[in-house]
Q: What sequence folds into this?
């Protein structure tokens, strides 16, 4: 008999960091449970998006099923390419969310009559997803970080959306496993209560850095283990990228910096538009300074969508267009839908420094002993993990990005490079035992 697991919240091959977390979560469970059968939620608002989001993982033999609780964007078949959504879009999504909330609450109810009513609202394929739940050996929350809120009116629903699958698993007495996540801050009181109530029922909870550990201890009164981000266990591919990069203008005789950026809405800030413009302008100034110092720059699209908010190409091209023609002679732009997370990691090994807004680009680079600077956004992950590694001076908040600060960090890294690399080596030695302990602890649960 197969041991069936469903890995949530969803598979997103276009986000190489999330892809790595899904793949590494599965690899952990291959060491925990014999005869494993893996199910993943597909993502995307249309068939083209769905295939882009699952094509690489589908090739590994995993089975895809539709989400029971769909994102309002997906349910409305929205393919908007705006970074900042209009009020009309939010109202439309809000209507979808309210109707979904009512029907899905019935599915997680203890009363069978409510279950039947809720089930009647599902599509034929969604009903098959629901029928899988009682058969699961475990529902696995992949490593990552999505449980954070900043006081917005819709925060509680966002938490409900992410926690629904755990609630449904608890309804059918299925073990829920929360692999190392970053949790917090939770500035919406209802969202905070919901998170505590749901995750407290899990068979195993872990966080990926001490900032989240302290948050859970002080704010939710939960003491949980710290386990490294699963991205640190990813192995780079065996591909040789020398020719690949040379064809795209990479000059290996020069010092090279890779930069990953992302669009960002600066939710919760009154001056969000100003902060976003400053973020891009300061990166452009930073590039100019580093080119003058002798570096070549590669602007790398680490995540490719499908929504505009997750499409790094938009931010990268804005920066590229903002730099002068003289600077552009030393800048290349890289995007490739065909590369997976293991290949992206190997590619970062060819650089002297990586500056990453996408934190998993930082992790991939560190895996390859490429020193990195992190631009932190969205919760505790970047600050906490860089501090745990022992390099807290090399992380900067996205709201405080400035060319001067980044230039100072590069110069500090140049001076302290050997010490930085030694800390990475020490951390990687620690990782081996951490993974062994994780597998051992999970085996005890089953």
A:
């Amino acid at each position: 008999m197969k041991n069936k697991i469903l890995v949530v919240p969803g598979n997103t091959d276009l986000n190489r960091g999330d892809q790595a977390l899904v793949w590494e979560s599965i690899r952990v469970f291959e060491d925990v449970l014999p005869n494993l059968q893996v199910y993943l939620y597909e993502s995307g608002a249309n068939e083209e998006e769905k295939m882009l989001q699952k094509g690489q993982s589908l090739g590994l033999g995993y089975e895809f099923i539709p989400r029971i609780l769909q994102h309002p964007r997906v349910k409305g078949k929205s393919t908007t390419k705006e970074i900042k959504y209009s009020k009309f879009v939010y109202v439309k999504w809000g209507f979808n969310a309210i109707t979904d909330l009512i029907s899905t609450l019935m599915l997680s109810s203890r009363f069978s009559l409510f279950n039947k009513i809720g089930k009647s609202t599902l599509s034929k394929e969604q009903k098959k997803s629901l029928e899988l739940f009682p058969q699961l050996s475990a529902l696995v929350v992949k490593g990552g970080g999505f449980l954070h809120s900043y006081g917005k009116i819709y925060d509680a629903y966002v938490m409900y959306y992410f926690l629904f699958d755990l609630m449904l698993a608890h309804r059918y007495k299925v073990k829920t496993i929360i692999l190392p996540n970053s949790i917090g801050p939770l500035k919406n009181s209802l969202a905070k209560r919901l998170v505590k109530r749901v995750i407290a029922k899990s068979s195993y909870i872990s966080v990926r850095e001490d900032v989240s550990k302290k948050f859970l201890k002080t704010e939710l009164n939960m003491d949980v283990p710290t386990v490294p981000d699963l991205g640190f266990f990813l192995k780079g591919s065996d591909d040789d990228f020398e020719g690949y990069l040379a064809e795209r203008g990479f000059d290996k005789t020069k010092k090279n910096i890779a930069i990953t950026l992302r669009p960002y809405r600066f939710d919760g800030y009154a001056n969000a538009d100003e902060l976003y413009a400053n973020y891009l302008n300061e990166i452009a100034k930073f590039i100019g300074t580093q080119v003058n110092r002798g570096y070549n720059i590669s602007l790398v699209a680490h995540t490719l969508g499908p929504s505009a908010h997750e499409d790094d190409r938009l931010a990268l091209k804005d920066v590229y267009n903002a730099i002068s023609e003289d600077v552009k002679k030393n800048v290349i732009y890289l995007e490739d839908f065909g590369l997976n997370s293991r290949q992206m990691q190997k590619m970062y090994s060819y650089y002297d420094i990586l500056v990453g807004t996408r934190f998993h680009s930082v992790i991939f680079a560190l895996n390859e002993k490429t020193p990195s600077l992190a631009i932190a956004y969205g919760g505790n992950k970047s600050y906490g993990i860089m501090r745990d590694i022992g390099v807290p001076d090399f992380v900067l908040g996205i709201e405080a990005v400035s060319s001067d600060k980044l230039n100072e960090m590069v110069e500090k890294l140049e001076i302290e490079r050997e010490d930085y690399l030694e800390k990475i080596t020490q951390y990687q030695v620690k990782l081996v035992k951490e993974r062994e302990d994780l597998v051992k602890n999970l085996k005890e649960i089953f």
Notes: The mean pLDDT is 92. The first strand starts at residue 3 and ends at 8. The CA atoms of residues 13 and 55 lie 7 Å apart. The first helix runs from residue 16 to 32.
